[in-house]
Write a sequence for this structure.
């Protein structure tokens, strides 16, 4: 048997649910009569390492020196630790069994103790994402680090799961999806091991982190830059399909080293050019012509090959899904999504969305969805409600989504959304100060932000808000006003994620710093931004003090959890007792920084 494409999700990604990237690609490839399959190596690795990572985390927490040196403040706050705790689990009345896949899934589905669930999540998060041996990240700079014993468990898993598939299925293309920076080291390790084992499919790296990878490959002597045959930048459906067909044809010639002999033209007017791809030598390509897919041509995601019901942490299998690509607003000055993408807003028709949801239910038994669109547009949400009601599907699905606050998100629309299945909305609010909102082009009004959050609460839908301290031109007095506004939402908002402003290379603010009053910024220290307000230089030390001493603790105190899955699960549990369900008393939790671009990784 031969496959056209084998897709792999590398380790160090979200263990609660699969990512959208490979299922979206697989659905599209199969719709184009290409053969494909996928392996979630992230989930396989997480489950393989779960016991040692938990034991390692607990051992760090029990040791005063290691706790102080390695465990981040956010994790310590969640665990309620001001000193080392050899008895952490007993303190929180958490059994050893809860620290297993089945134990945690059962706890998420049944416990009325979000604070204890937060502790389990923090232990696993620390063990999986933070507590890495230095040789793991070290492999990015030094090929020799791959020989360190720290890599042995991942290598064993690749030997057991991936290499036999390559041997058996002989895929023409091996695609690795790199969604975050922590996946780069596993990606280059896997590619290196595949090459060493003598497999030579066309190896393609894609995903939202590829742009950063390309910059690294161009700007430094990265030892790994020749490992992949191509990078795919941006949306990859058409590019990967084209590559699959060409690679399949090349493979069928039976020529020795057929993949290495394939050539790719660099100019869009040349016949061998594939839009959105960067061929070797990658460092010689400055920009590539990107492709933005026509969303009506996109297929339903295909989760074939993933154990949706048994191997992810969410006990209600929950899948990510995009009802649109790009952003319906697109103008926020701080936004670090690639400009072409965010300004190319392409919503799917509600009929297509509901058809897709029904297919997930019929084919995979899925009724829980997280819409991972950048921000759901009110008109789009109205259409979704219309379509669900028109087909008598109200209440069949449960979902969460991201949104921008809007006067159109009123109680009528939110009540309908609850009735039809909406249970959690994550809002990018950023600030409650109208002047600051105007400066950063957020396109929202302060009073609409406060009203929308209250209306969401009144409709029985959980809310999560993001706020940013130290947006350009914001004064300490204005930040103090934001803190007061946040206090006014005590008991109304369910989770608050507040972070300090970090300047990003890809944002409008960075491109036009003077316009935003910025007089000093350094991408290597993105929070150390100095700016003016009017003629005055703003005291950024006072902004930082307000953030650490008042804003962040206030956000922690108001948040039921720091994890969107746990908040969504809590909403599902509580609706069992009535149409709205009782709301829990707020409990102390912690919410981390303001990272929420692309797929949200980790939750602390
Ligand atoms: S921050 Fe969010 S709402 Fe603003 S442009 Fe970016 S994706 Fe759109």
């Amino acid at each position: 048997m031969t496959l056209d494409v084998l897709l792999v999700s590398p380790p160090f990604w979200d263990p609660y649910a699969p990512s959208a990237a490979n299922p979206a690609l697989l659905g599209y490839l199969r719709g184009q009569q290409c053969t494909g399959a996928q392996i979630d190596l992230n989930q396989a690795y997480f489950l393989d390492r779960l016991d040692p990572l938990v034991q390692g985390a607990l051992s760090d927490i029990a040791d005063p020196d290691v706790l102080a040196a390695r465990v981040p403040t956010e994790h310590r706050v969640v665990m309620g630790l001001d000193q080392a705790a050899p008895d952490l689990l007993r303190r929180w009345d958490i059994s050893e069994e809860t620290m297993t896949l089945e134990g945690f899934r059962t706890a998420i589905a049944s416990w009325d103790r979000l604070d204890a669930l937060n502790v389990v999540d923090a232990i696993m998060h620390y063990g999986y994402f933070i507590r890495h041996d230095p040789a793991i990240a070290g492999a990015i700079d030094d090929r020799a680090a791959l020989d360190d014993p720290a890599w042995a468990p991942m290598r064993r898993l690749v030997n057991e799961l991936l290499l036999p598939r390559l041997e058996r299925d002989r895929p023409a293309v091996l695609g690795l999806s790199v969604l975050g920076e922590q996946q780069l080291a596993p990606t280059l390790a896997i590619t290196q091991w595949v090459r060493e084992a003598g497999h030579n499919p066309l190896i393609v790296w894609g995903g939202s982190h590829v742009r950063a990878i390309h910059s690294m490959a161009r700007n430094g002597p990265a030892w790994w830059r020749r490992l992949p045959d191509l990078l795919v930048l941006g949306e990859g459906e058409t590019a990967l399909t084209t590559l699959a067909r060409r690679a399949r044809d090349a493979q069928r010639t039976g020529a020795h080293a057929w993949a290495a002999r394939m050539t790719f033209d660099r100019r869009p007017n040349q016949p061998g050019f594939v839009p959105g791809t960067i061929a070797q030598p990658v460092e010689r390509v400055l920009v590539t012509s990107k492709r933005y897919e026509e969303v009506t041509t996109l297929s339903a995601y295909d989760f074939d090959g993933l154990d949706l019901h048994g191997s992810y942490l969410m006990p209600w299998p929950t899948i990510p899904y995009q009802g649109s690509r790009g952003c319906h607003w697109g103008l926020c000055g701080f936004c670090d999504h690639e400009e072409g993408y965010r300004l190319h807003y392409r919503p799917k028709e509600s009929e297509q969305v509901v058809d897709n949801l029904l297919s997930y239910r019929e084919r995979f038994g899925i009724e829980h969805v997280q819409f991972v669109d950048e921000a759901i547009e009110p008109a789009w949400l109205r259409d979704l409600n219309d379509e669900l009601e028109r087909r008598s599907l109200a209440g069949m699905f449960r979902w969460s989504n991201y949104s921008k606050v809007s006067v159109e998100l009123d109680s009528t629309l939110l009540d309908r959304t609850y009735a039809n299945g909406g249970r959690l909305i994550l809002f990018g609010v950023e600030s409650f100060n109208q002047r600051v909102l105007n400066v950063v082009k957020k396109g929202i009004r302060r009073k609409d932000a406060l009203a929308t959050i209250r209306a969401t609460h009144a409709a029985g839908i959980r809310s999560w808000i993001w706020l940013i301290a130290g947006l350009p031109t914001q004064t300490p007095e204005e930040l103090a006003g934001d803190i007061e506004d946040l206090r006014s939402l005590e008991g109304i908002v369910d989770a608050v994620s507040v972070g300090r402003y970090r300047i990003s290379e890809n944002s409008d603010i960075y491109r036009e710093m003077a316009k935003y009053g910025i007089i000093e910024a350094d991408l290597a220290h993105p929070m150390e931004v100095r700016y003016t307000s009017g003629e005055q230089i703003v005291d950024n030390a006072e902004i930082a003090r307000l953030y650490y001493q008042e804003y962040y603790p206030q956000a922690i105190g108001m948040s039921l959890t720091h994890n969107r899955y746990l908040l969504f699960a809590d909403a599902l549990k509580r609706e069992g007792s009535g149409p709205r369900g009782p709301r829990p008393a707020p409990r102390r939790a912690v919410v981390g920084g303001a990272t929420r671009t692309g797929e949200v990784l980790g939750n602390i």
About this structure: Residues 327, 329-332, 335, 337, 342, 374-375, 404, 428 surround iron/sulfur cluster (CB under 6 Å). Residues 577-604 have pLDDT under 50 and may be disordered. The chain has three domains: 5-46+137-284, 50-133, 317-577.
